[in-house]
């Protein structure tokens, strides 16, 4: 039997802890807002009319993920948003959303905008899949 960690008092390895578990708080009374996950892809006439790039309407051919989160009675300044590679963590005084994303994303280069007339936060994230350099060459 060989101990992998340097500290022998450690009861688990960091690889065993699921990503995003540090955000999980079952005692938080805030309700989860309504949200919607949409996928977006860049297509041109060569894709639509000629089918030259092998793209299809599936999520496997989409470059971006758009998450629309309804936040009624919320000001832009009250929103705290944290994006990890597979986790979206949103908190406001009344709402809390911990979302495990369906695909890994580029957490450093996302965009968010608050549509105050619709009371919706729109977060656009670039999907980061392992073989995208082959699919989108």
UniProtKB/TrEMBL annotation:
Occurrences of domain PIH1D1/2/3 CS-like (ranges): 32-127
InterPro entries in alphabetical order: DNAAF6, PIH1D1/2/3_CS-like
Similarity remark: Belongs to the PIH1 family.
Species the sequence originates in: Mesembrinibis cayennensis
GO CC terms of this entry: cytoplasm
GO BP terms, alphabetized: axonemal dynein complex assembly; flagellated sperm motility
Any one GO MF annotation of this record: dynein intermediate chain binding
Name of the protein in question: PIHD3 protein
């Amino acid at each position: 039997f060989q101990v992998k960690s340097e500290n022998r008092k450690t009861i688990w390895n960091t690889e065993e802890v699921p990503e995003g578990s540090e955000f999980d708080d079952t005692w938080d009374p805030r309700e989860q807002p309504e949200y919607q996950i949409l996928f977006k892809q860049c297509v041109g006439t060569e894709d639509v009319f000629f089918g030259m790039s092998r793209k299809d309407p599936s999520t496997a051919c989409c470059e971006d993920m758009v998450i629309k989160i309804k936040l009624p009675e919320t000001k832009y300044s009250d929103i705290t948003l944290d994006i990890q590679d597979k986790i979206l963590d949103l908190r406001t005084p009344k709402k809390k959303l911990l979302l495990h994303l369906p695909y890994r994303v580029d957490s450093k280069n996302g965009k968010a905008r608050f549509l105050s007339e619709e009371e919706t936060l729109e977060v656009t994230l670039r999907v980061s899949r392992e073989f995208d350099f082959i699919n989108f060459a």
